[in-house]
Amino acid sequence: MTDLAAKPLNGERTHPLTAHARANLALIRTTPKPKHSFNPGVVDRLTRQPNPLAEVVSLVSPYPSHWGKKIPHLRSPGRSSTPATSATSSASRPG
Question: Using one digit for the tens of pLDDT, what is the confidence trace for 32-57?
Answer without folding.
Answer: 999 999 999 899 888 887 788 999 99
